[in-house]
Every structure is written in structure tokens, then in C-alpha cells.
Design brief:
This protein is α+β, with helices and mostly antiparallel strands and 382 residues long. Helix content is 40%, strand content 11%. Among the domains are: 195 residues, Alpha-Beta Complex (Lambda Exonuclease, Chain A), CATH 3.90.320; 59 residues, no CATH class. The strands form 3 sheets. The protein has a 5-stranded mixed beta sheet with strand order 3-6-7-8-9, sandwiched between helices. It has a two-stranded antiparallel ribbon with strand order 1-2. It is globular, with a radius of gyration of 25 Å. It starts with 15 loop residues before the first helix and ends in a 31-residue tail after the last helix.
């Protein structure tokens, strides 16, 4: 497997959301190493398999094999192949409906018309001449759901193509098969991309200015910014939100609505910063540093059988079927087993229910109906 991990230039499309929102991140991240991890390596292998499928190759026979990627041994599992085929099937369906125009795979796009340092390598591009540019992006991650709605990275790619192709609209597709509702799309016109063009140029110039400001926000975590531990702006935001020091947190029921709003807005950012500090501390201590009051110990997982056959041989005669568990698979597992075509569009409505588990707070832009206000009744209203 020869697929190479994609480079991450400071002004590349893959880091666009970061410097679009935080201009100072360009200078701050320039000298910080961003070493690969196993999740990145798995994603690279999955992208390589997807590219092979779209080039007409069969990958099913690779199930069970392992490849070395960025220093990690990655197994090509049945689950990985299933997710890759779900992504590629999505593209192939749209490709066939469009009359099978050429697919452009992993081809570098430069936006020198916008700025000399702007470039990127989209997973898949499909151009319907004089009509539509399709941009497909394969997200193999299972942690945070990524939406296609005004997605800066994919609009960046669409702009690069539309500067060279005479098309009137674009459709960008995020394909994230490992999360629920992971296939999303966003459509726009040539006018929309022209407005994006102007804003992108402005943001790129701002990011390359001397002393460009550091601006913390959700993008710190969502873009896995390598400067999160040492970022002075993020540290300042943390102090501002939770307190000026770590000894005097505000009393919760005395907080103003504006303060509560601020904590909710930056909750994930602060928790992510604290998690990165803990990871950094662990790394230092493993290397021999001592942090007073703390130590590093060996973590242990749940107990598992050394050899299941030996356990069965020893206890099956005595306990019989009680030794085993049998339960129905989940709705999601049945959808994967049977396929959505076999189950039909009304499968979820007919066979499943999603129990209410209480209330949760989300941003107003997220899906979901606002619940009716619950106010105490009785003596208070008399």
C-alpha cells in the first residue's frame, strides 16, 4: 500500500477552518511537530482503499491483512472495508446518474489566483461540464460528526475547480460512514463561491500578517490544533471563563445568564485543553519528570479469557447454557447486516423507538425541537 499521508501546509485546505477563525495559528503551529497517531494512520489506509475501489480495483481480498502506515501496523478489517464500500457506493451512484464523467482522485489543486500559498488535495472531484462541480470528502473518523454545511475545506476545493471550469453551481459532500447521519451535502451557486473567494483571500492575507491574533474557539478542538497546550489565548480564555485562578470557581446558582452562556459556549474547548494538559503531563512523567502529588501507574483493562475453549471445557458440563449469553443485535447492526434496500425506508419507524433520556443543551443551529418551558405551578402563581 503506497498511499501517502496528505501534507498539512499552514495554508492548505485541510487546515483552512483553523486559520480562517484563528489567523495567529499559522505562525503558532509552524514550528510545532504534529506526529502521526494510530487514528491518522487508519484514516490514511481507509483513504487508500477507497481510491483503489474508485479506480476499479477489488479490495475484499485484503480483509485480514496488515499494512505498515506511518510507523503503525494497521489491520484491514471487514468493518473498515464495509465503511470504505459505503463511501465509494455513494459516489458511484451519483457518478452513474450523472452519465459517468471522469472522476478526479487525490489531485492537487492550487489556488494561486487567490493566494500563492493556497492549495489542497481533495479525495474526489466530479465535474459535469457547464453545470455542476461535485466535491466528495471521506471522513473516516468516528469521534466528531463533520457537516457539509458551508464547510470551508470543501468550498476551498470547489473554488479551485470552478476557477478553471465553467460551471454554475457546486455540491459538496461529506461522507462519514462511522457516525450516525454522517452523509451530508451542501449546494451553492457560482455567486456563492465568488463571495467565498473574496472572503478566503481576505482571511489568507490576515493569517500571514505579522503578529496575527490568536483567537480561541471550537476550532481549537475540531481542527486538532497542535498549539492547544501552549496557546496563550486559549489559556487566557480558560482563566476568564472558569476564574482568574484555579481556587475560586464561581458558585453555580449565582452565575449570571451571560456567564452561563460563556461556559456553555467554551465547555468543549476548555475540557479539551485540560485533557491535553493531562496528556502532556503523562508524557513528561513517563520520560522521568516528577510532578509533586502525582504519579504514573499502569492502567488495566477489563479481565478477559486467556483461552475461551479451556473455560468452556472446564465449566460447560456444570453450567450448560447459563455459561453463554444471547441477545438481539442493535438496529444499526441489523441495517449493516441486511442492507437498507432489504429493510426499506420505513424500517426505523416500524420496528424501532428512541426512548427519551432527559433533556440536553445544544446550540440553536443543531436539529431538534425546543421543549415546552416547564414552570412551577401552584402557590407561586396565585
Amino acid at each position: 500500500m503506497t498511499h501517502k499521508p496528505r501534507a498539512h501546509s499552514v495554508l492548505s485546505a485541510s487546515s483552512c477552518e483553523r486559520w480562517w477563525n484563528c489567523p495567529g495559528s499559522v505562525a503558532a503551529c509552524k514550528t510545532i511537530p504534529n506526529p502521526p497517531n494510530k487514528y491518522m494512520a487508519e484514516g490514511t489506509v481507509a483513504h487508500s482503499l477507497a481510491e483503489q475501489v474508485l479506480r476499479g480495483k477489488v479490495i475484499v481480498d485484503l480483509i485480514g491483512t496488515t499494512v505498515m502506515q506511518e510507523g503503525f501496523e494497521i489491520e484491514i478489517t471487514e468493518e473498515m472495508v464495509d465503511h470504505v464500500l459505503e463511501y465509494t457506493s455513494y459516489i458511484i451512484k451519483i457518478h452513474q446518474e450523472a452519465g459517468c464523467p471522469p472522476l478526479i482522485l487525490e489531485e492537487k489543486i492550487e489556488l494561486k489566483e487567490v493566494h500563492v500559498d493556497l492549495w489542497g488535495s481533495p479525495d474526489c472531484i466530479m465535474v459535469i461540464p457547464f453545470d455542476t462541480v461535485h466535491v466528495f470528502d471521506f471522513k473516516y473518523g468516528a469521534g466528531k460528526r463533520v457537516s457539509a454545511w458551508e464547510n470551508k475545506q470543501l468550498m476551498y476545493y470547489a473554488l479551485g475547480v470552478m476557477l478553471r471550469e465553467d460551471c454554475t453551481k457546486f455540491i459538496i459532500h461529506i461522507c462519514q460512514p462511522r457516525v450516525e447521519d454522517g452523509f451530508t451535502k451542501y449546494e451553492g451557486t457560482s455567486d456563492d463561491i465568488f463571495e467565498f473567494h473574496k472572503e478566503l483571500q481576505k482571511r489568507a492575507e490576515a493569517a500571514l500578517k505579522k503578529n496575527a491574533p490568536l483567537i480561541p474557539g471550537d476550532w481549537c478542538k475540531s481542527t486538532f490544533c497542535p498549539n492547544r497546550v501552549g496557546c496563550s489565548a486559549l489559556h487566557g480564555l480558560t482563566n476568564e471563563v472558569i476564574a482568574k485562578d484555579f481556587e475560586s470557581l464561581p458558585v453555580v446558582d449565582s452565575m449570571s445568564l451571560s456567564m452561563i452562556q460563556k461556559v456553555l459556549k467554551y465547555e468543549d474547548v476548555i475540557k479539551d485543553w485540560m485533557s491535553k494538559v493531562r496528556d502532556h503531563a503523562k508524557e513528561l512523567m513517563v520520560q522521568g519528570e516528577h510532578i509533586p502529588g502525582y504519579k504514573v501507574v499502569q492502567g488495566l483493562g477489563n479481565a478477559r479469557w486467556v483461552d475461551e475453549e479451556v473455560v468452556i471445557a472446564e465449566f460447560e458440563d456444570e453450567f450448560g447454557d447459563k455459561l453463554f449469553q444471547k441477545k438481539l443485535i442493535s438496529p444499526a447492526q441489523l441495517e449493516k447486516l441486511a442492507g437498507k434496500k432489504r429493510l426499506g425506508p420505513d424500517f426505523r419507524d416500524e420496528y424501532t423507538v428512541r426512548p427519551e433520556t432527559g433533556y440536553k443543551i445544544v446550540e440553536e443551529s443543531e436539529p431538534g425541537a425546543i421543549i415546552k418551558s416547564i414552570k412551577p405551578e401552584g402557590d407561586f402563581n396565585e
